[in-house]
Amino acid sequence: MRTLVEESVAETLRAEGGETVRLYAAACAERMAPLFVGLQAGGAGREADLDFFVESVRGLWYADRPLPDVSARVRALERFPELQPNEEGISDIAGTYTFFAALVLRHALLANRSGIADDAVSCGHAALTATGMLDQNLGGAAYRAQEERLQLLSVSGDVAGLWEASVEAGRERFRAVLGRTARSSG
């Protein structure tokens, strides 16, 4: 399968493995987290899921080692409604972006556990797919280009400011999706 992740990023992930893979995956998950947390906030019975999501993303930043309970976290995440098969599919805006955020976290957790480039590339691919969709839906937006730049930064070896840039990018995406949901419901 051809992925959207730049070949230079994938090559670096393959060559470096371990901590580089974990850091890359953590940054991807951080940028997508506001979409899940923000769009699910206030949802009935989702408080524990929101806490789980935030705690998982925070734990991923300890990239020098896998999370001790990563397998249990993957199993718990796979029970989220966003990752359950649905015959009708996903048709609403919030559902689409919370699905992608959950999918990115799933791949990030797998990459955290394995330290293997293929898991991280799947994580980056899902993030690029979501940002590409956001660009298409907003016309003139450049979220995918921003994601590509931040993925390059994640494997550059000089990651000063990566967390801050990831947090800000996630906030921007959330605001854009929130604005889109407001326009479509109005």
Summarize the structure.
With 186 residues, this protein is mainly α. It has helices at residues 7-16, 18-40, 47-60, 70-77, 93-114, 117-138, 143-154, 162-185.
How is this structure best described in words?
This protein has 186 residues and is mostly helical. The protein has one domain (7-185): YP_001051499.1 fold like, CATH 1.20.1590. Helix content is 73%, strand content 0%. The chain has 8 helices and no strands. Helix 2 runs antiparallel to helix 3 and helix 7 packs antiparallel against helix 8 (162-185). The protein is globular. The protein starts with 6 loop residues before the first helix and ends with a helix. The model has no long low-confidence stretch (mean pLDDT 94).
Show unreliable segments: none
Q: Number of helical segments?
A: 8
Order of helices and strands: HHHHHHHH
Tell me the β content. Answer: under 5%
Rg over C-alpha atoms, rounded to the nearest angstrom: 15 Å
**Domain unit count:** 1
**Straight-line N-to-C gap:** 39 Å
CATH names the topology as: YP_001051499.1 fold like
Instruction: Count every beta strand, where a strand is a DSSP E run of 2 or more residues.
Output: 0
Main beta-sheet strand count, sense and barrel state: none
CATH architecture: Up-down Bundle
- CATH class placement: Mainly Alpha
Average pLDDT level: 94
Backbone structural class:
mainly alpha
Shape: globular
How is this fold's topology laid out?
Elements: H1 7-16, H2 18-40, H3 47-60, H4 70-77, H5 93-114, H6 117-138, H7 143-154, H8 162-185
Helix pairs in contact: 1-2, 1-6, 2-3, 2-5, 2-6, 2-7, 2-8, 3-5, 4-5, 5-6, 6-7, 6-8, 7-8
